[in-house]
Amino acid sequence: MTTDDFEPFRGLPLTREQDAEIRTYIAHKIAIDEPWDTLGLSCMLKDMLNPREPGDECP
Prior knowledge:
Layout: H1 16-31, H2 39-49
Helix pairs in contact: 1-2
């Protein structure tokens, strides 16, 4: 892989900025010894990948 190659988190269609936000979230959760694959991450990904509909809120 060259430095120009970009492989986003789990192969999802994310921008570099979104991918960096996800990876920062995961690194933070690992650093404070909390699980990172949670509803919070799922909601974050859902917000990034789909436009939000009124009333379609993650808990």
